[in-house]
Design a protein that fits this description.
By secondary structure, the protein is mostly helical. The protein contains three helices and no strands. Keywords: Bacterial flagellum, Cell projection, Cilium, Flagellum.
């Protein structure tokens, strides 16, 4: 599972929960694209993938600094940008999760 599909599934679940909390009907909550995967597992998988991308970028930059002739500067820069984009995406997902949690907690029962 790649990061984008995992995050899309998490966001779809959050939207469905938000719709249900706002008084939407139950049939709109069922998301056919979402499998029976555990929410925690999806989130852990996404965080692990971001961590892997960051570690790869760090290793490439260290190899370049050491003077390894097999590592090109453009490869280092691309891997660092991938790590940055994936981290920023994870921050946005975290922000949306916090916002969804706050909305759920503000619902009057």
């Amino acid at each position: 599972m790649n990061i984008a599909s995992g995050m899309d599934q998490v966001l779809a679940q959050l939207k469905a929960t938000s719709d249900l909390a706002a008084g939407g009907n139950r049939s709109s909550v069922v998301a056919p694209a979402v499998s029976q995967a555990d929410f925690g597992q999806l989130l852990k998988s996404a965080v692990d993938q971001v961590n892997t991308v960051q570690q790869t970028a760090s290793q490439l930059s260290q190899e370049f600094v050491r003077g390894n002739q097999d590592v090109e500067l453009h490869d280092v820069m691309i891997s660092l940008q991938k790590a940055n984009v994936s981290f920023q995406s994870m921050i946005q997902v975290r922000n949306r999760l916090v916002t969804a949690y706050q909305e759920i907690m503000n619902i009057q029962v």
